Amino acid sequence: MQGSLMVDIGGTWLTAEDRHFLRQPEVGGLILFARNIEHPRQVRELCEAIRAERPELLLAVDQEGGRVQRLRQGFVRLPAMRRFANHPEADRLAEACGWIMATEVLAVGLDFSFAPVLDLDHGRSAVIGQRAFEGAPGRATDLAGAFIRGMHAAGMAATGKHFPGHGWAEADSHVAIPRDERSLEDIKAVDLVPFKRLSGQLEAIMPAHVIYPCVDEQPAGFSRRWLQDVLRGELGFKGVIFSDDLSMAGAHVAGDAAGRIEAALSAGCDMGLVCNDRAAAELALTALQRLKAKPSQRLKRMSAKAFPPIEYRQHPRWLAALSTLRQAGLID
Helix, strand, or coil here: 67? Predict the structure, then answer.
């Protein structure tokens, strides 16, 4: 069974220290970053080495498209999601892109990408911007739904982020603590729409490191009001809740890494991410050992449904999807 902590490693192969760390039962997942990736074969070998240590670990990556794309050399350079909106066949293109993304990620041995972004492009948040499908909630929902259909067809679980919407807050939660001063009614009427309409199609949701003071003075990822009352209660969401990276500045309101992982799990997260800081990850691990945190049964649904054969690039669907995106001018 997967533990409640997702961590990272420093290089393109496992060190003895990494192996020891990953053997801890409280560790349930590992996320790869650009520094861990050289080319498809290397990623596949790294994933095999990780699974030799812990076969049940969830292996993830951020492969949204546009500027957030960790797998690059030897992979399709995916467009930013905002580029779909202006095409007359946008839904078909978004579905093809979701399938291509998922197929490539699965083919190297990873379980899932943290995608799609369900935030809306209000023209305010530089950190979201082109990562969003649209500014209009209905259209964003349709395009994200098409992208999810493509992911599911390839065998990948979908993670909607960043609940209940990061598109209005201007600050970047990687380096600051963003605030969204709107009322709950305003957020429900606009930014919450994609999460509500797609909640039955999402296997997981990742909350934002954003404070919505009219609702709660805690960031959404530490807020029982958001995660239990709104997401679980009002939206009826039954899937996995991942924290965003608890090393980000937007999470520091909850104290050190031990305090942050405890706050995230207490609020309702099933798994907490602690990345780019091994000392913080070890502190979070110690906290989970002390708390005797019980792993969530929900995490099982994030494992890949199937891994494509290595020769997937010869598959007719692959060739057709690639041709569709090329003809639309979305990829080279």
Answer: coil
